[in-house]
Prior knowledge:
Layout: H1 26-49, H2 70-75, H3 92-101, H4 107-128, H5 137-146, E1 149-154, H6 160-168, E2 177-182, E3 188-193, E4 196-201, H7 204-218, E5 231-235, E6 238-240, E7 247-251, H8 252-261, E8 268-273, H9 281-295, E9 307-312, H10 317-339, H11 343-349, E10 353-358, E11 365-369, H12 377-391, E12 397-401, H13 405-420, E13 428-434, H14 440-445, E14 454-460, E15 473-478, E16 481-488, E17 493-500, H15 503-510, E18 519-523, H16 527-532, H17 547-555, H18 572-584, H19 596-602, H20 608-619, H21 622-635, H22 647-656, H23 666-678, H24 684-690, H25 695-714, H26 732-743, E19 747-750, E20 756-758, E21 764-767, E22 780-788, E23 792-800, H27 802-810
Parallel strand pairs: 1-9, 1-10, 4-7, 4-8, 5-7, 8-9, 11-18, 12-14, 12-15, 13-14, 15-18, 21-23
Antiparallel strand pairs: 2-3, 5-6, 16-17, 19-20, 19-22, 20-21, 22-23
Helix pairs in contact: 6-7, 8-9, 9-10, 10-11, 12-13, 17-18, 19-20, 20-21, 20-26, 21-23, 21-25, 21-26, 26-27
This protein binds adenosine-5'-triphosphate.
Amino acid sequence: MPEKVHTHFGDSDEDSFTQTPNPVSDQVAGQEIARKKRRSKKRKHDETADNTQPRNGESIPDPEPVPIAKPTIKEFTPEGKPGDIPQPPPTKTQVAKHETKSKPKSFSDTKTNFAPLRERANALYELRKKLPIFGHADEIRHKLRAHDVMLLVGETGSGKSTQIPQFLVNEFWCRPTPAQIPKEDGSTRSATVGGCIAITQPRRVAAITLARRVAEEMGTPLGSSSPASKVGYAVRFDTSVSPSTRIKFLTEGMLLQEMLHDPWLTKYSAVVVDEVHERGINVDLTVGFLRNLVSGKKEGRGGVPLKVVVMSATADMESLTGFFQEGFKIQEREQKHVSNGDAAEKKETAKEIAACHIKGRQFPVKTIYSPEPVHDFVDAALKVIFQIHYKEPMPGDILVFLTGQETVEALEHLVNEYATGMDPSLPRIQVLPLFAALPQVAQQRVFQPAPPRTRKVILATNIAETSVTVSGVRYVVDCGKAKVKQFRTRLGLDSLLVKPISKSAAIQRKGRAGREAPGQCFRLYTEKDYLTLDETNTPEILRCDLSQALLNMKARGVDDIVRFPFLTRPPREALEKALLQLLNIDALQDSGKISDIGLQIAKLPLTPTLGRVLLAAAENGPDCLIDVIDIISCLSVENIFLNTTSEEKKEAAEMARRDLYRREGDHLTMLATVRAYASENADRKAWAERHLVSHRAMQSVMDVRKQLRTQCRQAKLLPRDDGSNHTSDPAPILILQSFLRGFGTNTARLVPDGSYRTVVGNQTVAIHPSSVLYGKKVEAIMYNEFVFTNRSYARGVSAVQMDWVGEALAG
Ligand SMILES: Nc1ncnc2c1ncn2[C@@H]1O[C@H](COP(=O)(O)OP(=O)(O)OP(=O)(O)O)[C@@H](O)[C@H]1O
């Protein structure tokens, strides 16, 4: 499995909301306060009459901006006046930041700028009312007033992700609440708890696009574009929130990261876990931590409850109910044990798990199966795309699900080639790829409307499978397969395998159509094959390297892994392997407790192995670290070199890249490529084309490189003035030895029959044809990735010496 760093590519896609915040005159701010007071009074009255909100669904929240100049700061009282839309208190830095950010503009500008937001919100309100979930708003609110945990099942497109946070945000329990939090010395400190809702998503694309949509529906600017913005998002390397943020979409990984600093999630009144059926490791850890939080005594929240909503279209809600109930039962037993009375019993009887089932979807989606099994899904998808394009009326964009970057790019090429020969009287075709390693700006292009008389054809991996609405899509083409990580216990490695998806994933893919109008889903497999698919995704925790998950837990104070509430308990063997791996890279002490190195690694946005490499490089000095960052940045994208399928192309690539290839192997070759690309000042795109290097991938590399450098400076691994533009020759030995500190177990030695055998496990492994070392015989190799297609391949390979390997494995 390639070691991944996640990328951040700025927020340039948020064009409509990037106005500079406007300072507000005192007079206008005064009016604003008066208006809020009136609202506050009215709401107080409403609440006294009936502590419920009489509306069905959520009325359109007033999109008028809350001004951020001096008067507004007064409103950030810890108590949060009833009726006010409560605001978390801004920190001094936040205030200072926003004050300096604000460019002088007149209030009339603000009005002009926000009026369209309000109009748009009004228009969207009409659409929201038609969503199946809308009629359940009161039921959901009532249930959550009585219960802390709710499980919600609703079909794809029923409105879960966009509406639930809006239904809840004005609930009384969702206000910042003053609390007394015990300190270690037995005293207490005053703090404000709650005020925000977190909605977790498995993927960054979904988190960003949902935040944008909900901001539109609420008529508020998005994220950090205005201090008045109520909706924000946080994905790795890219956080866009304001001091007024009340609804925050974030990846599960980001919530876990926040828990490192704030284990009680004191910022939040509710956490909504969306798309739980995906069962990635992070969602499993998230629900485990949340169960502990809701069923425990909440002392770190000063006793203020945290509401948890777990949602999906297809999850097994029965086992989730059992999972949360078990948490309450354990707590009840423990309390009984302590108090030995009925008080605890009474307290626990109210802690049932609420459930809500939303029936129906807004628009039907017709399923069309392939009559025969398909052997080449790229070819089959090509045919279906043009069949739709020739037969089906406009508008109607097409979303195709493929397995990975390679198949996306192969089909992109084919569709473009065919489209050039099309009858010019037909509408045009615009092909847009969508995969994780694509720069964010390119990913966001998918969400922009197609030009006139043009049909968008989006070629995506499963990153578009859940939660995402691509406006305009009426047709989904599903290849029925996905690349999945699979841990090969014997080798102790993750590999990437192409496997059939589950029924649940097929339902999600189909659900990407029929969101704005009726749709069609073309399954490139037979109905018989569909019926043989697994019902649900195999939880990642059962099939992946667990070292990152374990480090995550250890860093959050979970020392006794066995007692952690796993949604599905991973096999003992995999846990032991992961513990061993963490011990190997010095992330744990011999006692099993996290080490200082482990703590440092946990704070890096990298896998433990790459984190270890980074720290080892830092020990070798800033020059080495700067070079290692370049290489790690390349490992974060699927392939920086363009595919060379034919022999002819291969030869051309060899010629073009001659000056980049390094005899030491792929790592130094990547470094040479990044250095050459970065020093190209004239035309980087042309340089990339000349060298058959992917310009798109290199843009991502440059972005990750920048982020990692910043992160290393913040972590004091790099000095402020690190000479990052250094031109001194790289030190290959130091670089490769740094990599071995993380990848010591990913090594193989040459044996007399000319093959390579892994140092750990003694398995035969071949150098992948994409490697610059392909066909070469060296004493030993180190590799980043182990892929299994028709045989076992090592990818990302460099030549190393056996005594370095020995040293690395000895620690
Ligand atoms: N970015 C968007 N552009 C256009 N319409 C959108 C967008 N996001 C949501 N919608 C509309 O809101 C509806 C509900 O979306 P939402 O994501 O809340 O549903 P969901 O129940 O969470 O679906 P899923 O389970 O598929 O994630 C969509 O079907 C679509 O009509």
